[in-house]
């Protein structure tokens, strides 16, 4: 019996000699864009290309493509516009030039990894009658050259199905923006897996295990795919682009694990060679950096300095000192209030108390790095600020000011808490 199943995937193009070959404008000829554009040129589509660095277009021009001097010039006579750019900022810059040139009946296929917000913003700028498909791709340069990419397409693909089929297999993901969203989800998982493998190997080293043995054990388990990607040879997903994708992802949702992974790859990408190389190149650097990072002992002490005003009751301490082995420390002072008939008098009393609390710890008002102020009436901000400036005369610390209905003591008009840094002797 035949097993016949309907699929939402589109296979290769149908061959129809009478089918119109749409004029395509392809903008962005990076590592992925160039082989993709070459596939469309080989399929017989009239192709106009543009790239920020024109020299990248020379091989395609030699094969029959037309080089435009600007994005606007590239799209002027096109039926379909395809963009394969570095990120949201590049897309916005290109859109500024291209949108005025678009006419009803054209379709913009956005294939970069820019996130759903950028796609929605682009859609809002398009004229009525101009179609938009977001179709980011899965796969590296080898699959781009072979037409074997996975394409995650959001929006109405009806008018561009045959074009996309030259590039790979299309999965329809839903409305515009859904392709970009799914690509971001997939990339975040892939990058996170690579970062997890790097940390697992760091743990193996810390426990005295042989690195190759640990790698083989990881590869044989559920993380086999992540291990393969972490040590892939021939793939190219630049480390700086991975950092860009994680930046978009962590802006969309609170992702503590992705934020930690992003910190690893950002540090690795400080080396320009690693930044441009596949993210697998970052793995040894992450393992090495994390493994060799010194652990700094921390001592935490709670204190009510002798000679300084005591707390209002015995249920809290005035100062928390977090001290490192080199003698440097952070001082966290609890919120301070003071007596006085006016806001100015209370503010002066608070800063005098803060100064008295810092002194026994080897710090002064100049060492304050962060200050948080609570006022019962924000209208008194100028009066408070005038006094504060008499005490804090150097570089202003980071600052937040809040209006609250009342403080711990009903007569209090201001409460201040600070963080100060103690330099090593």
**Tally of contiguous helical segments:** 16
Number of strands: 16
Low-confidence stretches: 1-18
Task: Work out the helicity level.
Answer: 25-40%
Largest sheet: 6 strands, parallel
Q: Proportion of β residues?
A: 15-25%
Strand order of the largest sheet: 4-3-2-5-6-7
Give the CA-based shape.
Answer: elongated
Radius of gyration based on Cα positions? 30 Å
* Helix-strand makeup class: alpha/beta
Mean pLDDT across residues: 90
Task: Give the CA-CA distance, first to last residue.
Answer: 84 Å
Organism: Streptomyces alanosinicus
GO molecular function: NADP binding; oxidoreductase activity
Pfam family, one: NAD_binding_2
Protein name: 6-phosphogluconate dehydrogenase NADP-binding domain-containing protein
In short:
The protein has 16 helices and 16 strands.
Describe this structure in words.
It comes from Streptomyces alanosinicus. GO terms for molecular function: NADP binding; oxidoreductase activity. This is 6-phosphogluconate dehydrogenase NADP-binding domain-containing protein. The chain has about 425 residues and is α/β, with parallel strands linked by helices. It is built from 16 helices and 16 strands. The chain has helices at about 35-40, 60, 70-75, 90-100, 115-125, 140-145, 160-165, 180-205, 210-220, 225-230, 240-250, 255-270, 270-275, 280-290, 345-360, 380-390; strands spanning about 10, 25, 45-50, 65, 80-85, 105-110, 130-135, 135-140, 150-155, 170-175, 300-305, 320-325, 330-335, 370-375, 400-405, 415-420. The strands form 3 sheets. A 6-stranded parallel sheet has the order 4-3-2-5-6-7. It has a 6-stranded mixed sheet with strand order 11-12-13-16-14-15, with helices on one face. Strand 9, helix 7 (about 160-165) and strand 10 (about 170-175) form a beta-alpha-beta unit. Helix 8 crosses helix 11, helix 8 packs across helix 14 and helix 15 packs parallel to helix 16. The longest helix is centred in the middle third of the chain and has 29 residues, at about 180-205. The model is unreliable at about 1-20 (pLDDT under 50).
């Amino acid at each position: 019996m035949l097993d016949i199943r309907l699929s939402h995937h589109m296979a290769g193009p149908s061959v129809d000699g009478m089918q119109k070959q749409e004029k395509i404008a392809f903008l962005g000829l990076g590592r992925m864009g160039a082989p993709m554009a070459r596939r469309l040129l080989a399929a017989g589509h009239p192709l106009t290309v543009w790239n920020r660095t024109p020299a990248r277009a020379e091989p395609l021009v030699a094969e029959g493509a037309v080089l435009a001097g600007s994005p606007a010039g590239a799209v002027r006579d096109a039926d379909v516009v395809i963009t394969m750019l570095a990120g949201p900022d590049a897309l916005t810059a290109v859109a500024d030039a291209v949108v005025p040139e678009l006419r009803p009946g054209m379709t913009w296929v956005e294939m970069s990894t820019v996130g759903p917000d950028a796609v929605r913003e682009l859609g809002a700028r398009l004229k009525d009658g101009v179609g938009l498909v977001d179709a980011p791709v899965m796969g590296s340069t080898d699959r781009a050259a072979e037409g074997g990419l996975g394409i995650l397409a959001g929006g109405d693909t009806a008018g561009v199905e045959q074009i996309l089929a030259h590039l790979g297999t299309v999965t329809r993901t839903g409305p515009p923006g859904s392709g970009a969203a799914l690509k971001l989800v997939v990339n975040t998982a892939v990058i996170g897996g690579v970062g997890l493998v790097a940390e697992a190997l760091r743990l193996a080293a810390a426990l005295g295990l042989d690195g190759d043995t640990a790698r083989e054990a990881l590869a044989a388990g559920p993380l086999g795919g992540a291990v393969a990607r972490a040590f892939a040879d021939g793939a190219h997903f630049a480390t700086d682009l991975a950092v860009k994708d994680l930046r978009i992802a962590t802006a969309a949702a609170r992702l503590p694990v992705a934020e930690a992974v992003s910190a690893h790859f950002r540090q690795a990408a400080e080396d320009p060679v690693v930044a441009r190389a596949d993210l697998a190149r970052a793995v040894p650097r992450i393992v090495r950096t994390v493994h060799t990072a010194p652990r700094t002992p921390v001592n935490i002490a709670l204190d009510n300095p002798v000679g300084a005003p005591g707390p209002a009751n015995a249920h809290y301490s005035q100062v928390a000192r977090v001290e490192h082995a080199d003698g440097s420390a952070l001082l966290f002072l609890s919120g301070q209030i003071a007596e006085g008939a006016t806001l100015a008098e209370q503010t002066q009393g608070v800063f005098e108390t803060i100064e008295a609390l810092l002194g026994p710890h080897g710090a002064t008002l100049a060492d304050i790095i962060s200050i948080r102020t609570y006022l019962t009436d924000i209208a008194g901000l100028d009066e408070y600020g005038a006094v504060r400036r008499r005490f804090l005369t150097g570089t202003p610390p980071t600052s937040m000011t809040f209006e609250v209905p009342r403080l711990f003591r009903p007569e209090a008009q201001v409460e201040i808490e600070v963080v100060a840094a103690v330099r090593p002797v």
